[in-house]
Amino acid sequence: MQIVFMNTFEKPGDDHHIVSAQLSICERQGIWAVLWVEGEEASGNPQTWFEGTSWEEMIIAFRHGIARVMGEGYTPLIDGMLDDRRTSSGSFGMMLQCYGELHANQELFQALREWRRSKAVAEKRSAYLIATNRILWMISAFVPKTAEELAQIPGWGSSKHASYGLEVLEITNEANRETDFPLQWVEEKLDYSAYTQWLYKQKETKYKAQMDRQQAKKHILTTAQDGGTLEQIGAELELSRRELMDRIEQLELEGYNLDSLITRALIEVPEDEQQLVWEALTQVGDKYLKPVLQQVYGSSEASQLNRPVDVLYERLRLIRLRYRRSLTIKAV
């Protein structure tokens, strides 16, 4: 294989010994490989981080591996291989997030989680839309007791405070705290090495999510080409129907043609019903589906429909994909 890129990494070992490693990107006849070799002997058994034909997947695996080993203490001789500014610099908001995760009050965190769960059930919303775990970790670590203090928590904006601020403060006012506001003291008190490791862990998580999306994308395209169904793909990828439709719409935006999969998904939908949806898309537009639903089925209330609203919305989304592709073909 031809070596396209190589870099050396080092980290402190025992008894002031320096542990070294080499990272390389290699290519042979269109096959890319990312190899990691630890130890002084470059001929040692390499770990293969990636092997395949996709440049995009290779770069993601390359960055994911770098974030992981740098989180373990390795430092590259040539930096700048990740896709943004140096991880060690960070920002004050990220310092607060890190401190919150490392110093969360578990009892208070669980109380906040239970409140969020009850709120999500009552409002029929996803829990993360009410407050993410990261926000709850920070609240449990810093224990704000006034609206002004709660506003210093990154991610807790005015709309969240208007909806949930009083309820959260009722919970936090029952808890003790050992620190105070404002939170500028965090920058000095936060352990630098722990913070650096945390930052690289965030990058590792981000690139792992990108790798998973790439694998899911490949699976959807392959299964669709092989005659698979939405039910099969959703079950194999453990995605909800809504999440799967989001992925399919994104693939269509990227230029992939999934018409065969769409045809199989709509096979039980009568042609006259599909035509009514098509005409409604033409008349009221394709940006919002609620007006289309109302025009075709007469209502958007589940109690007034013979079928679940989510099933009907999925049909509309599938037909909308065909409709939009037809507009693109006409434009060309």
List keywords for this structure.
5-stranded antiparallel beta sheet; alpha+beta; 11% strand; flat; DNA polymerase, domain 1; 4 domains
Percent of residues in helices: 55-70%
Separation of the first and last Cα atoms:
42 Å
Please give the CATH class of the largest domain.
Mainly Alpha
Low-confidence stretches: none
Q: Which series of helices and strands comes N to C? A: EEEEHEHHHHHHHHHHHHHH
Annotation, overall tally of beta strands: 5
CATH architecture descriptor text of the largest domain: Orthogonal Bundle
CATH fold description of the largest domain: DNA polymerase, domain 1
Task: Describe the structure concisely.
This protein is of the alpha+beta class. The chain has helices spanning 55-71, 92-102, 106-123, 127-130, 133-142, 147-150, 158-172, 185-189, 192-225, 230-237, 241-253, 259-265, 271-284, 290-297, 309-331; strands spanning 2-12, 18-28, 31-38, 47-52, 75-76. A hairpin with an 8-residue loop joins strand 3 and strand 4.
